[in-house]
Amino acid sequence: MRQRAMWSAVLVVGLALAGCGSASDSGKSTSSDGKLVVWDWKSGEPFAKSYLDKAKADFKKKHADVEVEFVAQPFDQYYTLLGAAIQSGKGPDVMMFNGGGQIRDRVDALVPITDYVAEDKQRLAGWDAFTKDGKVYGGPVTLQGYPIYYNKEIYRKAGLDPASPATTWDKFVADCAAIAKASSKCFALGNKEGVGIQFWMSSLGSTTLTAQEYDAWIAGKRDWNSPNVKRIFQTWKEAGDKKMNTDGANSTAMFNDSFAAFQSGKAAHVMGLMSDVGHWKSFNEFLTAEKLGVMKAPVVTAGTTPSLPYDGGIGYAVAKWTKDPKVAADLVRSLTSADALKAFYADAGAIAADITIDVSQAGPAASTIVAELKTGKPALHVALSSKTIDLMGRLSQQLLSGSITVDEVVKQLAASDQAG
Amino acid sequence: MPIGNTQPSVRLASAGRAGGPAATSPARRGGTRPRRTRGGLGAERYAPYILIAPAVLIIVALRLYPLILGVNFSFTGDGDQNGEAVGFGNYQELFADPLFRTALGNVGLLVLLLPVAVAIPGLLATFIFLRVPGHRFYRSVYFFPAVLSPVIVGAIFNLLLAFDGPLNAVLGSIGVGPVDWLGDPDVAMFMVVGVHIWATFGMALVVFLAGFATLDAALLDAARVDGASLRQVVWHVIIPSLARTIQFVFVTTMIGMLTSMFGLLFVMTSGGPEGSTYLPEYYIWIQQGQMNRPALASAASTILFAIMLVVGMLQIKLLERSGKVD
User: Fold this and answer.
1) CA atoms within 13 Å, Cβ hemisphere of A203
2) What is the predicted pLDDT for the residue at A169?
3) What residues does CATH 3.40.190.10 cover in chain A?
4) Worst-scoring range by mean pLDDT, A31-40, A287-296, B53-62, B262-271?
5) Is residue B6 predicted with pLDDT exceeding 80?
6) Which of A1, A256, A394, A395 best probes binding to B when mutated, by most B CB atoms within 10 angstroms?
7) How far A64 CA sits from the closest chain B CA (Å)?
């Protein structure tokens, strides 16, 4: 009897320990014994294989004795899992981040790698999204931007010249009326997640705000009462009121129902992405490269010059609890090496952070985008905090349904922006 | 039980739970006890504590301790203030956040819709019990959605309720304008609750059918002989006889509504449009995962816990009362 009790006790304790072990195993930092653990949401995908192979080979040259383990996490749980790891102070040595708010909100848990990556500063673009208070926290892998794609076939049907899309907002609205007559919608819009307004703000930002306002916005000095800032929300509302968007925008998912609507020719324009999804590669497949165009933002405020809004898309950062930040930073450098990024561009269909990569094989749309990178500026919405972005999503839905005024929207956003 | 009055109450409880004649027999043969050695008595005294120790330890270590940690964590700050005590700051922020108030309001809405969620399976079970034509077929069909995962149900209804989806096409063919079922803030919450009821009423239906099985057929026959109409039979015979079953279904449906809507919400509306379909659970998930505000999420969790505690207490009260009726 006593023996049985003892064995049960051993079993219970054993199970309890095993349970703890398995729960925290993947989060354990194991850098001490010559191993780096990397968390991301890409390494599990088949297209990432050659990218990872190239990056690992590059890292092997520098640190042959350090083993690297990639742990692919599901993207929709990624920041939840990472948050738990950060909270416990134990986690991966190197981790993937979206540029902008996601990494800036978590710099407490990261090591600045400014000095380690100094050599890559010129070759790569998109550093701003991984920088906070002048310190670089991550190396960019892809660039994410918000070009306006259009369907040349629909332009032809509507009697418009596909080679010269509208350059002013008024002309653009008139073109949309012509497109409506040809029974297509002007914009494929999915705003179920409230993401549509982010793309709108950034795509039209360079031609709505003056250059000074734009730079001040990115620098954190945002004047929400400026008439031009209000204009961003007014054009958004105007597009809704004039039925320029696909129907039921507030219940349509941007990923990927609105992109599907554009691909299937239901709408003439879409504010899409440069990398990952809703981008030139997937549109090329459905519309073919000849029919797909990329246009500059139409000028809303006279005297402005359109520029492509883009930032670092995804990148890798180094955790502050890693044993040797130099080694981990070298891994980040390998993950952003020219060869690795070339593989990423080719297989994943992304505009890689290395702007020296030749994209002429990828069709005219990709070439147009890359040509505009030189004059591009950081996207407006990326500068906002996640909290303000979330609020803006809900307010944009209210603007579309007509239950709020532009003035009220700007007031609420100003309050949220100043608080955060 | 006058015997054992002087003994620790824990022991009584454990003996009572073990139940049966075996557990009470040592007490009856109390005369043999004094002959045992002191050591044996001691072991017997501690035995119940040792026996329940694993269960208690597991509950304390894996349930209560994390719960206390979570409550404690909700009084600390986020970001720069990580680890610092902020008093009721998080709670003040929560109640100042219109989104959280919407989420609480939606919990209230769920409670209001509860009678509907119970009445539907109750009514359908009544029809099956009264053997309407095709009742066998309906019995299996009604249960079918209960085996589907909320994600699949959500995806199916996303397609059906899409603005250019089949439901609006049918409405359009009879001349009714399209409705943005999941895009209109006044409609969306009702759609999600409706789909949740559709997906889960099969379980309640089975419980109701089980209740009907215990119904005294003589009462029904008597009512029919007395010339009672269908409505009178349902109101005066079936409902009173099924009081306990109905209460049980109320309790389980309430729990289901408060705890398992996340999947549907996530797939169907993501809390939108305009934040109109937020529930506390979804709010907690957003704050922790997307906004990087774990302490604020803890505060919201604590409030949700308090709500569940109140609901749970009410349930226990209800069940106790119905127990006394018997």
Assistant:
1) 27
2) 97
3) 27-142+313-363, 148-307+384-419
4) A31-40
5) no
6) A394
7) 36
